DNA sequence: CATATTAATGTAATCCGTTACGTAAAATAT
DNA sequence: ATATTTTACGTAACGGATTACATTAATATG
């Protein structure tokens, strides 16, 4: 392997000068710089960043922990993260946690072992206390999902308002019997979306019926089953709001299998505006999060923390949008 | 920051002993080992892997370059890669190349700079020569997509046979006018899938009509447009084979917008069996690749290369499967 | 012309763990 | 009892690049 020493010898200068050339540091004559560069090219030298990283005690790498890359919701967010990272000289490592706390902790070792300068959580599995502990020593940002009361920055939308608006849209179309497909988990977004659903009903003088809530796990099948349950037990239901697009798509399929036409017989609203939402048959009315911006903002926060060495706890709320498609109106 | 020296001092032993404990090396008495472990815990010491990696000249990290994480096709493959990696003590960094050769090369720097021990390409953008050059110096495996004649291992299915089978399925259902939605690119899989389509027709005595081929770019929209073109120009067409599920889904949508029912008026077959294929309306007949196994196999090949220091060029072909759903039969 | 300043480069310590080698003590063999 | 082996450590070199500080040469200033 070619090292900086080989280059130095070949160019007839010291390793310090090579290092200065590599880092565009001042104090090298144009002539020497040219010569060094040509030697680097000729020897096909690639600096070994393990050395640099050890010395500088940084890696210019950040970790992004996401529950799964199967969920298309994350794709645009990640794009935002990567674009900002690249612009600032950082690399991004995506890591699938499978929503598994062991795997999450395993990947966090990369942070503790200094193989990464910071971490963005898409949906932290660990509890508030553990998160706080990590947040005290390392650069951490939560993205979309976050733990209430954790002293760690986060970027998200206002899930309560977004859900409220989605349900109000259905009510505005004349629906009075609106089912909800939610999830049984500890996500704050879930809680806020349920609250938004209830408030929208109450504000319109529609009594909240606990039997109208079913629970899934964000999967297609779970959405399908939840909808089937709702349609069986409550024939009067004319609309369903699902807290994720994938479950909403499952619900549409269930409607079709029950002989109900969407949107004629049943209106469906999802959440997330995944890339499949406009492709589906019918296209899906849904709440759109500014995914790209969320990603960019999260990465910007993270870089600020890394470079200012801590401090800078910030919480940022970005705007959502209701996108009306053919699953609610013809 | 706590270093190995601090632990050594606190435990009253030398750094070598600490290192031995950390690596489960022999030559440490049980008593000392216990004491060291308790000091490590008490001081909350995390070894700085930058030091270890520099010394050992390895990182136990591998790179996975994929065109985009938006394509759900990759999710299962990545899962296979990750599972095998974890079992062998490797971490996985996923990197979006955006099918951009610059980005691809940027991420390859991580390999050249020793921040990664090997790389798995899902769809290399660089040409055969460049790939060969990388393959000579570093551990490299191509996964699913590969360059013909490149002296670099690959794992994939037989795209020719798979495509042949898909088209034969349509012919078996009585279809005689079968459109193809392909892509204009240099992927070998594309070439093979087109060849399979042609051979299936010819073997059944159906003349190949070049007008029956349209080109997309793997996107939903492109599939939609391609199908619309086919349906407009060739009213006799009763089936379409698309070389990707997402384009097939676009094609189904186009059929519906043209008032054609799937599968009654038109049969559609896709390729990949993405997670959305069974969710779609109607569910999509498609070719399934053993994605998880492909991922596992690719990672196994890569580890073999890393640990045997080169050598071991192997090409592995895994079995595909045609999954018949409601886009071709009621 | 002597001195101060600046530019260009070199020397060597440093970052943190790993590991080859050395050593002393204890265990075992003869 | 002596010789040999084994065990349990410690010492220090090492990996590659960075950087504070030192040095030399060239230029500017009075």
Overview of the molecule:
2 copies of one chain form a homodimer. The mean pLDDT of chain A is 95. The longest helix of chain A has 17 residues. Chain A is elongated, with a radius of gyration of 25 Å. The termini of chain A are far apart. In chain A, the strands form 2 sheets. Chain A has a 6-stranded parallel β-sheet with strand order 2-1-3-4-5-11, sandwiched between helices. A 6-stranded mixed β-sheet of chain A has the order 7-6-8-9-10-12, sandwiched between helices. Chain A has 12 helices and 12 strands. In chain A, 45% of the residues lie in helices and 17% in strands. Chain A is an alpha/beta fold. The interface between A and B is large, with 51 and 49 residues. Chain A binds a DNA duplex (30 and 30 nucleotides) through helix 2 and helix 4.
Number of β-strand runs of chain A: 12
The two chains with the largest interface, and their residue counts, are:
A-B, 51 and 49 residues
Q: Using only CA atoms, what is the Rg of chain A?
A: 25 Å
**What is the typical, i.e. mean, pLDDT of chain A?**
95
Percent strand of chain A equals: 15-25%
């Amino acid at each position: 392997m070619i090292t900086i020493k080989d280059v130095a010898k070949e160019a007839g200068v010291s390793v310090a000068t090579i290092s200065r050339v590599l880092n565009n540091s001042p104090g090298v004559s144009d002539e020497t710089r040219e010569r060094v560069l040509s030697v680097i090219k000729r020897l096909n030298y690639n600096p070994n960043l393990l050395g640099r990283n050890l010395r500088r005690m940084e890696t210019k790498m950040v970790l992004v922990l996401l529950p799964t890359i199967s969920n298309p919701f994350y794709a645009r967010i990640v794009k935002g993260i990567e674009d900002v990272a690249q612009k600032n000289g950082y690399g991004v490592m995506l890591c699938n946690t499978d929503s598994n706390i062991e795997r999450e902790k395993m990947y966090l070792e990369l942070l503790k072992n200094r193989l990464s300068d910071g971490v963005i959580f898409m949906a932290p599995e660990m509890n508030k206390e553990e998160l706080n502990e990590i947040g005290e020593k390392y650069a951490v940002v939560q993205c979309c999902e976050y733990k209430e009361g954790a002293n760690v920055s986060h970027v998200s939308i206002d899930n309560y308002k977004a859900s409220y608006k989605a349900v109000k849209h259905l009510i505005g179309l004349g629906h009075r019997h609106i089912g909800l497909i939610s999830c049984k988990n500890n996500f704050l977004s879930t809680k806020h979306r349920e609250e938004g659903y209830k408030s929208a009903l109450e504000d319109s003088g529609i009594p909240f019926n606990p039997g109208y809530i079913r629970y899934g796990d964000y999967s297609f099948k779970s959405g399908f089953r939840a909808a089937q349950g709702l349609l069986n037990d409550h024939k009067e239901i004319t609309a369903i709001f699902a807290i994720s697009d994938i479950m909403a798509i499952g619900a549409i399929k269930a409607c079709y299998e029950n002989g109900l036409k969407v949107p004629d017989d049943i209106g469906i609203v999802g959440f997330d505006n995944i890339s499949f939402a406009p492709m589906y048959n019918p296209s899906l009315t849904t709440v759109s999060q500014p995914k790209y911006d969320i990603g960019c903002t999260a990465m910007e926060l993270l870089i600020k923390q890394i470079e200012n060495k801590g401090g800078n706890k910030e919480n940022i709320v970005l705007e959502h949008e209701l996108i009306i498609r053919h699953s609610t109106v013809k």
